[in-house]
Sequence to fold (299 residues):
Amino acid sequence: MAKTGKPRGTLRQKLGHAAIMAFFCGMWLVPYRLRNRWVGACLRGVLGRLLGYRKRVMDNLDLIYPDMPQDQKLKIADQVLDNAGRTFTENMFPAQFHAQNPEIKLHGAGLEAVLKAHKDGRPIMFYSGHFGNHEAFRAALFKHGIKVGGMVRRMANPYFDVQYKRMLDINGRGGPVFEADRYGTLAMLKSLKTGAALVLLLDLAVGHGITVHFMGRRVYCSVTAANFALKAKALFVPYFSMRNRDGDSFSVEIGAPIEHSDAETMTREATKSLEERVHADPGNWFWIHRRWKYRPPSE
Fold:
């Protein structure tokens, strides 16, 4: 499980963390939905430009949709940045997030299979990408008694890294969280084999793995999620945690489970399901990520 002990970092990192936490302590005084909308607007506006996020989103949209009209790309970029700002703020206040979202819609072709697997004590290996807010998915599943855990990458600032991992517990409503390293990987597989419900996201840039086509471009993709499902005999199922058009509410779809075959075949099928969802609702996907950073040599 990811460690959340006393962090050690530079004075600059400590001061940076203190500044962030002071900001959010002040934001606590602002009504929940107004706070989220304000931070979303900041990232959609000047802050997004200063951080370079808007340019990164537009560069990715130009890469994948070269023929799309510019005004449509700008609209998608606005949705992406607004969602990113709201998500970051929502996740800083997990108790409020749950209290303000008591009726998250949970549906989909795979929902009954997930509930049955949980009832039978069968492991569940969820997979997804960075859509909407991932915490809406965990909140919706918790209402059915399912605590979902997963794996996280260590953040550059060790002080905020500890804070972030504590938040992932969502006041005891989250499952175990593991560090993205060799020991964390082994611990995660062990936990899955005992019947846990865990998730891995497949849309992060990686410099190794199998070559897949994602949004018309060849990239590397890890087969870890599929391998875990095979080794633990776990249900391998997608979910899509989407922000609704009102910007405040969510809808969580559990897709149809992928049948067990081999890790490469399952990973390609999983990647295709993510690709279809991005095309269907591009403003809900996190285009800020450098998903196409690493390209196979032949491209």
Notes: The CA atoms of residues 150 and 177 lie 5 Å apart. The chain has one domain: 11-284. The longest strand covers residues 235-243. The chain has a mean pLDDT of 89.
